[in-house]
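tool=predict chain=A
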Amino acid sequence: MYAKAPHRPPFLLIDKILEMSEQHVVGVKNITMNESFFKGHFPGNPVMPGVLQVEAMAQAGGILALNSVPDPENYLTYFVRIENVRFKKKVLPGDTLLFRLDLLSPIRRGICHMKGIAFVGRNIVMEGELMAQLVKKTNT
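tool=predict ok
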C-alpha cells in the first residue's frame, strides 16, 4: 500500500498511483470537463493550466518521497525547485494524463530530486525536473 497524498479535493490532482518502486512512481489524472478550473480558463476553449499540470506531477512525486519514510502520515512534502519545464501539447477535457517520475539522485536529508514526464497516450505533453523536501509535521 502506498502513502496517501496529503492533499484533498478540490486540490487533489492525482486520481491513482499505478506503479511505484524506491526509484520511480507512475500516477494518473483523468481530465474531465467538470474540473472547476475549466469554467474560467479559456471558456469555450478549455485547456488544463500548465501550472496545475506541474502541481499534479509534483503530487505524484510527493507520494514517491513520502514512501521513503516509515511513518509518511507524519510528513508533508514541499516544493523547493522547479526547472526545465516544457509544455509540448495542450491537455484537454477527456484526456488521461499519465505521470512518470524517476529519482535523479537518492533521497538524502529529506530532499527528493526527480525528473518527470507527462503523457497523454504515447505523446509527451509536459516534462520537467522537480525538487521537494520532506518536512515533519508540527502540532500547531
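The chain has one domain: 16-136. Helices lie at 50-66.
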